[in-house]
Amino acid sequence: MKRTVEECTKLNIFELRRDGALSRDERDDYLHGNGLEIPLTRTLCNFGGFRWWFICPQCWKRVAVLYRPPRRTFFLCRHCHELTYESCQEHRTSFEPFSKRLKISDRVKKIYAGEGRKGFSKRELSQLAKLMNKIRRLPEFPPRPKIVYKRVKKR
């Protein structure tokens, strides 16, 4: 089974930008820190401004997220590390809507657990609202089927 993105350390350009690690007038074409030097580029947006991107140090593609799997030293894109998503590894069954409901409820429990914090951030509250809407749209769990014995004809 392939390694998944969820088990890796993630370096997200949008989170760095939101947290102020990248300034609006950043002139350096590299992100420096903790011995890392990751190339950056930016593209113009249609309605003004620009968007930052990482350049994968191995394949030189423009990406928004770089990953570092456990016991690896470099941040690379998910294609170079041959990573996949957990949802791609799951087997599709006829019970898919019900497994979705269970996954969503697990995500809600994780958000509610919020170890060591009081209250929710705006982002978590909006995630909860979206998850609750998804739950409402999913079908209910089916009742447990009664066991039906078929009579076997003697030959």
Name its key features.
two-stranded antiparallel ribbon; alpha+beta; 19% strand; 28% helix; elongated; 2 domains; four-stranded antiparallel beta sheet
Q: Short description, anyone?
A:
The chain is of the alpha+beta class and 155 residues long.
Describe this structure in words.
- The strands form two sheets. A four-stranded antiparallel β-sheet has the order 2-3-4-5.
- It is of the alpha+beta class and 155 residues long.
- The model has no long low-confidence stretch (mean pLDDT 76).
- Helix 3 (96-113) runs antiparallel to helix 4.
- It is elongated, with a radius of gyration of 23 Å.
- It folds into two domains: 5-68, no CATH class; 91-137.
- The protein has four helices and six strands.
**Helix proportion:** 25-40%
Average pLDDT level: 76
Cα separation of the termini: 47 Å
Most strands sheet: 4 strands, antiparallel
- In total, how many domains does the architecture comprise? 2
* Radius of gyration based on Cα positions: 23 Å
